[in-house]
Amino acid sequence: MHLDLSAEAVTLTQQLVDIESVSGDEAAIADAIEKAVGGLDHLTVQRFGNTLVARTELGRDERVVIAGHIDTVPLNDNLPARLTDTDLHGLGTCDMKGGVAIALRAAATLPSPNRDVTYVFYECEEVEAERNGLFKLSQSHPELLEADFAILMEPSDAVVEAGCQGTMRVDVLTRGERAHSARSWKGVNAIHGAAEVLTRLNDYEPRRPVIDGLEFHEGLNAVFISGGVAGNVLPDECRISVNYRFAPDRSEEEALAHMREVFDGYEIEVSDSAPAAMPGLSVPAAAAFVEAVGGTVNPKFGWTDVARFSVLGVPAVNFGPGDPHLAHKQEEFVPLAHLRSVEAQLHTWLGAGS
Amino acid sequence: MHLDLSAEAVTLTQQLVDIESVSGDEAAIADAIEKAVGGLDHLTVQRFGNTLVARTELGRDERVVIAGHIDTVPLNDNLPARLTDTDLHGLGTCDMKGGVAIALRAAATLPSPNRDVTYVFYECEEVEAERNGLFKLSQSHPELLEADFAILMEPSDAVVEAGCQGTMRVDVLTRGERAHSARSWKGVNAIHGAAEVLTRLNDYEPRRPVIDGLEFHEGLNAVFISGGVAGNVLPDECRISVNYRFAPDRSEEEALAHMREVFDGYEIEVSDSAPAAMPGLSVPAAAAFVEAVGGTVNPKFGWTDVARFSVLGVPAVNFGPGDPHLAHKQEEFVPLAHLRSVEAQLHTWLGAGS
User: Fold this and answer.
1) Residue B27: phi, psi to the nearest 5?
2) Mean pLDDT of B129-138
3) Which residue, A86, A125, A198, B240, is the most exposed by fewest CB within 10 angstroms?
4) Out of A182, A201, A221, whose CB is closest to B303?
5) For chain B, what is the mean pLDDT?
6) Sequence-ordered strand ranges (E) for chain B
7) Direct distance between the N- and C-terminal alpha carbons of chain B, in angstroms, rounded to an integer
8) How far is B218 from chain A (nearest CA, A)?
9) How far, in Å, CA of A88 to CA of A11, rounded?
10) Cα(A118)–Cα(A114) distance, rounded to whole angstroms?
11) In Å, how far are A65, A161, A268, A346, B239 from A281, measured between CA atoms?
């Protein structure tokens, strides 16, 4: 499969979409990208599995990372891509081959950007963290991700979304004592004991802290509940799985301490945790970027791979074409206007034509 | 396998226990019982599957049913029977071959009881209702169960337990609206909505009505709870399965109406229902029985097959050797003293030696 990096972003997005690349099956698209960027003299290209790193080595004062994942969620009768007057439809158009196309175009057409750029095209973002190409790279070659600033080209409605909220899942357990339900006064019902936990969730007032001028919005929600032994037995355990989305002014440790406080008196078990990312808009590279794209910045509520950059000490933002609410939906599409505006703003920031 | 109905109840119980008869596999024990009672001239014996009905036809003013199931729960390394100075141990000793042995002994050794007796030895009590031999008989030959009074020889600590509470299971549903948990304010959490349902359960005050001089004790308990879509999604449904144990002054219809009242405002689905049984101690045959066994009567909290007699208009009680709490336990046993006292009381009531 041949990718034409000189074609406009809409065409290139369509070419990328038509190469199936469900997570775990990215060899074909990685081959195509490797072939397309490998022929460019101004880039140093390295491949790790199906993850590609292409760097300019111009000795600029600043280095920035521009990254995007090349995998998609499973097919849902939504290939090949379908172009209308205003939008490109199909699996991966929104999440996130539109962003990948724009990054590839920048890599090919900007041989001498005003900042050194590390382009990262990575595998397995849609599956478990251990397989995530960006995570693996951060473990095996963290030096390749060193930078002053990073842009993750995930769909963000063509507006900068800065930082991201952290996410933690804890199981809150209530205990009881089994008894035959015909003689229920001999036992203690653990499901009834969950009333207090759910009441605390109902009464909880999520914080909305303002950080770097952005208002975040926390959330604390039960996402699973289970309990029960048999239809005639008082249950001795009930498990409430709670998802805490926390603003970037809290570390994972602080988030956990807060959970212990909210569920004081109950046993809790952490089943999942990922840190938040500070917006980091005060560093010069970020400020220049925000100015170049017109100054509008929104907070990012969902967790994204920007947090992986944050862990490495690199401020990062989401900035890409497409409505994030369409990600993973059968009817996903990307507006052509987004592809064009995001590309133009990125080129401006990287000094195209200057 | 030969059963010696002239042996004392302990020996006969041991013989019955040593014939394995897990539900669905009662042919051998039914054959042995059929052979043993089939040779008795004073009884008319009929067989339906592995259920046996043996009747005296003496033209007495009253007819009573004496019934027991011949199946057991699965083996649990607790056969053959083991006799100590005070107890007989092993699968089915308590639930309920001790009671079956006493009934068989009465059938064999009381050729001319003061009341006509219908002995019923039935299959598949420990499994689903559709396979229950007593249920099947009540459907196919209800005339064979016509009587003034019935005794079910289930373990009751050798004391009369009268009536039984009904049982109903309803699923209470709470509804919400899905949303990504990173933007929880866009949805409605159905698990959080269950707080109110659980609070009603916690606040519920079960009735303890006195019926025929017996204090019953109702119960309302969540036995299962479930809800959840994914770790990052606000759930749109939560299901709380509630078991209502109701006293025999309520019909199933009244019990359901009460559930609708308790869970007013919520959708409910009935998943299971079985009626209660009135103690029925005021009918002459029952009063005479209670007097013969010494006057002590307790209410029955758990559901048993006495309710099947109640449906047929026959007052019924539980009266048998063994502690009902040992039923289905590996270590079940029956005290020899129970076997002897229950047998003596039954014989007295049926006019032995008078």
Assistant:
1) -60, -45
2) 94
3) A86
4) A182
5) 94
6) 44-48, 51-55, 63-69, 82-83, 87-89, 116-122, 149-152, 160-162, 166-175, 179-180, 210-211, 214-215, 219-228, 233-234, 237-246, 267-274, 297-299, 316-318, 333-335
7) 34
8) 8
9) 10
10) 13
11) 15, 11, 35, 17, 45
Distance between alpha carbon B261 and the CA centroid of its chain, in Å? 29
Instruction: Name residue, tokens 């060193």.
Output: A146
Q: What is the pLDDT of residues B162-214, one digit of tens each?
A: 989 999 999 999 999 998 899 899 899 999 999 999 999 999 999 999 998 89
Among chain A residues, the shortest Cα distance to B300 is held by A182
Q: What is the DSSP string of A146-169?
A: --SEEEE---STTSEEESB-EEEE
* pLDDT tens digits, A242-299: 999 999 999 999 999 999 999 999 999 999 899 999 888 888 888 889 988 888 899 9
Shortest distance, CA B140 to any CA of chain A (angstroms) = 29
List, as one string, the DSSP characters of B231-261.
Answer: TTEE-SEEEEEEEEEE-TTS-HHHHHHHHHH
CB contact under 8 A, B227 and A224: yes
What's the one-letter identity of residue B87?
Answer: D
Label residue A108 exposed, middle or buried (CB < 10 Å: 0-12, 13-18, 19+): buried
**What are A307's two structure tokens?**
């947090």
Q: Does A181 touch chain B (CB under 8 A)?
A: yes
H-helix or E-strand spanning residue A192: helix A190-203
User: pLDDT-derived band of residue A353, with 50, 70 and 90 as boundaries?
Assistant: low
Q: Which residue has the tokens 């760097």?
A: A55
List, by residue number, the catalytic residues of B.
71, 125
| Cα B247 to Cα A318, B210, B310, distances in angstroms | 63, 9, 14
- Nearest-5° Cα angle at B295, B291 to B296: 150
ipTM of the predicted structure?
0.83
- The answer to whether residue A298 neighbours chain B at the CB level (below 8 Å) is no
Q: Look at residues A301, A297, A299, A276 and name the one whose alpha carbon lies nearest to residue A286.
A: A297
Residues 226-245 of A with CB under 8 A from B: 226-235, 238, 240-241, 243, 245
As a whole number of angstroms, the distance between CA B222 and CA B205 comes to 14
Q: Give the CA radius of gyration of chain A.
A: 23
Q: What percent of chain B has pLDDT over 90?
A: 83
Q: A213: alpha, beta or left, given left = phi > 0 and alpha = psi -120 to 50? A: left
- A169 near B CB under 8 A: yes
